[in-house]
Design a protein that fits this description.
CATH architecture of chain B: Up-down Bundle
Oligomer: heterodimer
Structural class of chain A: alpha+beta
Largest sheet of chain B: none
Number of domains of chain B: 1
Number of helices of chain B: 14
Order of helices and strands of chain B: HHHHHHHHHHHHHH
CATH superfamily of chain B: Cytochrome c oxidase-like, subunit I domain
Helix content of chain B: over 70%
CATH class of chain B: Mainly Alpha
Largest sheet of chain A: 4 strands, mixed
Strand content of chain A: 25-35%
Radius of gyration of chain B: 22 Å
Shape of chain A: globular
Number of strands of chain A: 4
CATH topology of chain B: Cytochrome C Oxidase, Chain A
Number of helices of chain A: 2
Strand order of the largest sheet of chain A: 1-2-4-3
Structural class of chain B: mainly alpha
Distance between the termini of chain B: 37 Å
Largest interface: A-B, 22 and 27 residues
Distance between the termini of chain A: 8 Å
Chain lengths: 77, 435
């Protein structure tokens, strides 16, 4: 579940949508199914959540004290 | 775990697109009106042609585009999904489109029945939208400045439309109401509490996101909406209570809020980390410069009697703020919103079988750059028309028709890319699921 180790980190700061999503999907393709992807963004990506759900992924979002977002994404079992 | 949104609640692409594809038609109609009315349009802000022209842009273009964007931005930016988005879009769009046509015709023909029809349609359309948006936003904690701004802006829209409907009734039936006072309030609420606040709320997200700039200063995000809305409320109170000593300073303070927004945005944009500035960056710069110039015109008219006594200074102020400011930035945002929507909906439909097209292929930059140049020409010619209407009103009308025809063509191109790609996705899905 959410304890899966991070296989790849995607830093979306300074990227224009939808680049963070495209990099995230590429990272999810590249990692082992037992791993997760950590996406770093300056804001909460509501449209990304919708697409992830449709494509069979789960996620957990945490807001950092600096106001950024850390999103762990992994394949649903 | 973060609650997942249901994609089925998100608006289908046709919900916002219908507004976006209709808006340029109204700006083209405004261009046709310039050709029909000629220099008379610029005699004063009160001529029937000037009032019809203003509302073709303010209701036909701006309100359409803003409602379409809000219907899309509420779920995408703050996670507030409107219930039955397609039905809401269908009814609101029809009511606002026909209402805007009736309103422009009512001003030109001075026909009470047309004012009545416009009041019913615009009132019903906006009420339905506000009710749907309020329901979607109900219970959402004011967790960020964008959410606060969108809520305040929708309140501002409601007051603007109520004042506008009251004016339409008063003009249509020649009622002895204080038209000049109500008009100023209608303008103040429309420019600042509705368009200004929503634009600022959205800018907090889209400027750093798409222009790769630093975030807006924290003080701006925390204070702008409350100060701007508070300023408009106090100004309204002073005006209605007859506190003449306070009206002008409070109007000035409200306008100063707008100038601060333009100045801060201008400053943030200059710190963009993009290697090459795109057309949307130029649309933002044009809009913020026009907004600052409009504020300078207003201030000059209050300070210098020679300018304040010139009957066309309100037209110059309005042209700078409405067309140079709000219309420009709206076009710039459409060039980000529409390709992103096409990409998002295709990505969602494809389920990874067929890659969604790159956003730059949905609407190629060269098409946008050409339209930007024609929009700049129409801005310049419109401003020159205020000073020398006999020379410039006809070229300005043609420029308005051409630049908005170009905008429509670009938006139709993005729509065609969506349709063609959808066919590819559906045939791929049919091949993989032959049954």
């Amino acid at each position: 579940m959410s304890h899966r180790p991070v296989g790849k980190v995607v830093d979306g700061h300074g990227l224009v949508p939808p680049e963070p999503f495209e990099l995230t999907m590429a990272a999810l393709d590249a990692i082992d199914p037992s791993e997760s992807v950590l996406l770093l963004l300056p804001r909460e990506p509501h449209p990304l959540f919708q697409l992830l759900e449709r494509q069979g992924f789960l996620h957990r979002t945490q807001r950092t004290p600096e106001g950024n977002y850390e999103i762990r994404i992994w394949r649903a079992d | 775990m973060q609650a997942l949104l249901s994609y089925d609640d998100a608006p289908p692409i046709s919900a916002p697109l219908r507004y976006y594809l209709t808006a340029p038609l109204f700006a083209m109609l405004a261009g046709v009106l310039m050709l029909y009315a000629g220099p008379e349009l610029f005699e004063s802000r009160w001529t029937p042609a000037a009032l019809a022209f203003t509302h073709l842009l303010a209701v036909g273009f701006m309100l359409q585009a803003m409602l379409g964007s809000l219907q899309q931005l509420l779920p995408v930016v703050v996670g507030a999904n409107l219930a039955r988005p397609l039905q809401v879009a269908a009814w609101v769009h029809v009511a606002v489109t026909i209402g805007a046509l009736f309103l422009a015709a009512a001003f030109l023909l001075e026909a009470p029945l047309l004012f009545g029809a416009a009041v019913v349609l615009l009132g019903a359309g906006v009420t339905l939208f506000v009710a749907a948006a309020a329901r979607a936003l109900r219970g959402m904690a004011a967790s960020n400045p964008t959410l606060v701004g969108l809520k305040a802006g929708i309140f501002g829209l409601s007051v603007t439309v109520v004042l506008g409907l009251a004016l339409a009734v008063a003009i249509g039936w020649s009622l002895d109401w204080p038209l000049a006072q109500l008009t100023d309030l209608h303008l103040g609420w429309g420019f600042m509490a509705w368009n200004g606040i929503v634009l600022a709320a959205v800018a907090l997200v889209v400027v750093p996101m798409f222009q790769i700039t630093p975030e807006y200063p924290a003080w701006f995000g925390r204070r702008f909406v409350s100060v701007a809305l508070g300023g408009v409320l106090l100004w309204t109170l002073a005006d209605l209570a007859g506190w003449s000593w306070a009206v002008l300073p409070l109007a000035g303070a409200t306008l100063a809020c707008g100038a601060v927004f333009c100045g801060v945005t201008f400053n943030v944009l200059q710190r963009s980390k993009r290697a090459k500035h795109d057309a949307t960056h130029h649309f933002w710069n044009l809009s913020m410069s026009s907004g600052l110039l409009a504020c300078a015109v207003w201030l000059t008219a209050q300070v210098l009697p020679a300018v304040g006594g010139w009957p066309r200074w309100p037209l110059l102020f309005g042209a700078l703020l409405l067309f140079g400011g709000f219309v420009s930035v709206t076009i710039g945002m459409l060039y980000k919103i529409v390709p992103f929507l096409v990409w998002l909906h295709l990505q969602s439909r494809s389920a990874r079988r067929v890659a969604a097209p790159n956003m730059k292929k949905v609407l190629p930059q060269v098409r946008i750059d050409r339209q930007l140049r024609s929009h700049l020409a129409s801005c310049a010619l419109l401003l020159l028309s205020v000073f020398w209407p006999v020379c410039f009103v006809y070229p300005a009308g043609v420029a308005l028709i051409v630049s908005n025809g170009w905008l429509l063509r670009n938006l139709l191109h993005a729509t065609a890319v969506y349709r063609n790609h959808l066919i590819t996705i559906e045939s791929a899905q049919a091949k993989s699921n032959p049954e």
